Amino acid sequence: MSTVPLENEKSLLPSAGASTPPGRPALQKRVRQRLTSRTATAAAVVIAVIWTIPTFGLLVSSFRPEDNIKGNGWWNVLTDRQFTIENYVDVLSPGGSQSPNLLSYFVNSLAIVIPGTIFTLVLGAMAAYMFAWGRFKGRDNLFIVVFALQIVPLQMALIPLLQLFTQVLKVGDFQLLPSGTYAQLWVAHTIFGLPLAIFLLHNFISEIPGEVIEAARVDGAGHSTIFWRIIIPLATPALASFGIFQFLWLWNDLLVALVFSGGGADVAPITQRLAELQGSRGGEWQRLTAGAFVSIIIPLAVFFGLQRYFVRGLLAGGLKG
Amino acid sequence: MEDIAEKGLQVVVGLAVFAAVIGLIMVLVDRAPKSGREKVQIAGFLAPALVLLAVGLVFPALQTSYLSLTDRNGEFVGLDNFVWMFTQPEALVTLRNTVIWVVLVPLLATSIGLAYAVFIDRAWGEKALKALVFMPMAISFVGAGVIWRFVYAYKGPEQDQIGLLNQILVWFGREPKQFLLDAPENTLFLIAVMIWIQTGFAMVVLSAAIKGIPTEIVEAARLDGAGPWQQFLNVTIPTIRGSLIVVVTTITIGTLKVFDIVRTMTAGQYETSVVANEMYTQAFRAGEPGRGAALALILFLMVLPVVVYNARLLRKQKEIR
Lengths: 321, 321
Hints:
Chain A has 321 residues and is an all-alpha fold.
């Protein structure tokens, strides 16, 4: 109640100012500032709550017994405190073809993401090093071309790339990147990650003081020695920032997985399985809530554990365009 | 367990092959004859990334451009696919939705993110408050899809609601609603998910920009008697303009390519499809690679101006520095 009249007084201030005693405007100003900051705080809290509640509801639900999840809303835990880890046991354990079998897909995600990230980092850093410190004709133009490749949405490459993997890259009947293994996903992810990796790592590597590199060269070190002994150690912060991004991006990917994984439990990542479960068993909330939480636990851990690097990478423009 | 060991072996083999290739390159470039060694070394470092990009991105993108001029049997049909896109009702709905997405998401995510960044600036518990809103950034679109489908979940009026939003409707004496089924407003409920994810990005980048505003400017404005609102309009906004544009363009690009949210929440049914989703549906589900390629090309053409603008801006900022 009391805030409303005070807020209105604000607009009256100029005309009223002349007659007010000297002490009052300062006081009023202080009060007003406190009040606006109080409104601001309230608004911030409202936003924070709206942004958190959906995830919180999912987490709470994933620990509720099946009948409860399907029977009433998760806010009923206030009065009806029944919790179980049954849902997690159910989604993780291997069973028949009907079971979510998420542990298997979880392992697939790790098996796709870890090499996918390492390949991109190493190849990206190698190219970035040459774009920054190699001396050759057309270097800057070539770099601009690579930079410009970020424009190409990966949708543009999917159809031909799949054909390439399955029909062209083979010797006799043997596919160089066999379907039903992780190889196609590793290569596809590496290709799509490279333009941004090269660009960001180049920005960092080119800022390494030239004297360091010159000194090593005078001592007779070749490019490979300089790269592994000097560039990689010095570029660790940039590698970490981009690495986290690439890791999260690959972990959360669905599109590339849908096209290249084949969809079985031997290759497909957890996002793909979760998407399938949503489609085929959209009402099985006890599985979906637990499954969703299993799928976001790694990104959340990475996020909260390495937030500093994450933010740094973001501010360096490390968002996949 | 056996399964996991097998997958682990695949990863180890993959990493070993990669390490062997890289090691071989390093050894070869170091042993190159002295006269041309520099050139060989540069080529050795650049080749892996450039070959992958050429084969996996440039060539496929060109092929997709050609593919967009062919029909499902691979025969040349000229611009038929584009005519289809701009005349058929279902394709037009896709384009309309994409426009709605690309207007609303950047606008709202940036506004809310900016407001939040201002509200919590130097507030008590700022870091924690930031993490709450930023957290969705780490969650996959698929995971976010589950989280929000649960918020939107629908049960008949005579049953207990399990979705929070419908429960709120019921508390206010309204009928529960099929949020994801009723066109055209269902698109808005999908858009809300993207805003939920992107706001954190806007908030973090803009918060860093706000902290970078020189205190003298803020002090000067305050001494001139500018209220908080005037300070915001006349000092904050103009000073962080560059960051604002980067945020808006980055979110715009991400929104144009949005696929997973639509795929997992409605699969593009009930008039909710967008270009990126339709591209997948046509190319990989409906057996119409020509139409899929045409949609991918349209996506490219929509992203292009935004990226070019963004790149130019970045370069300008660098020159100023």
